[in-house]
Amino acid sequence: MSKFDVLTIGNAIVDILARCDDSFLSENAITKGAMNLIDAERAELLYSKMGPAIEASGGSAGNTAAGLASLGGKAAYFGKVAEDQLGEIFQHDIRAQGVYYETKPQGDNPPTARSMIFVTPDGERSMNTYLGACVDLGPEHVEEDVVANAKVTYFEGYLWDPPRAKEAIREAARIAHAHGREVSMTLSDAFCVGRYRAEFLDLMRSGTVDIVFANKQEALSLYETDDFELALKKIAPDCKLAAVTMSEEGAVILRGDERLQVSAYPIEELVDTTGAGDLFAAGFLYGYTQGRSLEDCGKLGCLAAAIVIQQIGPRPQISLKDAAKEKGLI
Fold first, then answer.
1. Mean pLDDT, residues 128-139
2. Are 112 and 44 in contact (CB under 8 A)?
C-alpha cells in the first residue's frame, strides 16, 4: 500500500497577484507570460509599484499538490521556506489543503520566496520571482520514506534554477525508481526550457523521468521547432508518457504509439491563467494514480484547469472532488 498518491517537489513561493495593463509590463521591462527571475532589490521595486494585491500560497508543484488533495488524493510536498511571515502563510495554506508538508523552515535570511504576478486583462500572467529561501533546498531535505511511499514523485522544471535542487531531484528519482515508483516533471515554461533544454532531454531519454507535462509552447521550445506535429512526434519516444496542453484546444496525451486528444471544458470567463498547467497535472495525476484510463486522466486535468482559470490565484477555491463528481469523472 502506498501512503501517498503523489509527492510533489518545488519552489515554495507565496504569490502576490495584482491586475495591470500591457503598458505597465512594457514600462517596467516585464516579459509577458513568462516567469522572470529577479533579485531582492527588483522584488522591492516591483512590489512598490503594484496596485491592490492578493497574497496566496503558490509555487508550481505546491499548486499541483493542493489540486490533488482537493480531488481527494493523498499528496505530499517538499519545498523550502524561511522562518518569516510569508513562510508561515505558505506552511499554513498547504497543510490546510490536506497536503503532508514537513520540510523544516530555515532561519529568516534569505526570506521566503515570493512572486509578483501581474495579470493583464486577457488573463495572462507575468511572473517576477525572487527565489529567496528556495535556493536552500538540497538532497538532505529529501525524506526517503516519503519518496518510497509515493506512487509518483513529481517536480517542476523551475527547480533547475537553484543549483542544489538538481541534486535533490536526482536523489529523489533514484529512491523512487529503487522502490518501483515513477517520476514525473513539468517543463514549467518555454524560457525555462530554453535555459535547460539539453538537461531536460537527458532526464527524459535516460529514464530519470517517466511522465512529462508540457504546454504547446514548451514542447515547441524543447525541440526548437515551429512545427507542433513534429514536436509531438519527437516527445512520444523520449518518455514513457507525455501530456501536452493546448489552452482552449484541450490536451494531447501520448504513450508509445498511442495518442489521444481531450477537449477543454467550456468556461464562463477567463479570469487568471495562473496555475492552469499545475492544476491540469493535478487532475491528470490523480486519475493516473487511481488507475483510470488516459482519457479520464486528461478529462480530470482539463476540468481542474478550467476551474482554476475562472478565479484569481492558483489554488482551487472550490472542491475539485465535488466538481469531478458532478461531471461523472469520480
1. 94
2. no
Q: What is the CA radius of gyration of the chain?
A: 18
Run of H or E including 100: strand 100-101
Q: What whole-number distance in Å separates Cα of residue 144 and Cα of residue 172?
A: 8
- Name which of 12, 148, 186 is nearest 91 in CA terms: 12
| Continuous H helices in 129-274 | 144-148, 163-178, 190-205, 216-222, 228-238
Gap between the Cα atoms of 33 and 306, Å rounded: 18
Q: Whole-angstrom Cα distance, residue 219 to residue 221?
A: 5
Instruction: Count CA within 13 A, CB hemisphere, residue 73.
Output: 33
Among 43, 45, 51, residue whose Cα is nearest residue 14: 43
186 has a pLDDT exceeding 90: yes
Give yes or no for residue 272 having a pLDDT over 90. Answer: no
Cα(315)–Cα(308) distance, integer angstroms: 7
| Those residues with Cβ within 8 angstroms of residue 151's Cβ, 6 or more apart along the chain or in another chain | 2, 4, 5, 6, 181, 182, 289
When pLDDT is cut at 50, 70 and 90, the band that residue 312 belongs to is: confident
Task: Answer yes or no: is pLDDT of 163 > 90.
Answer: no
The whole-number average pLDDT for the span 298-320 is 95
Query: Whole-model pTM?
Result: 0.93
3-state secondary structure string across 142-163: CCHHHHHCEEEEEEEHHHHCCH
Q: Report CA-CA distances (Å) from 159 to 15, 131, 135, 230.
A: 17, 10, 9, 27
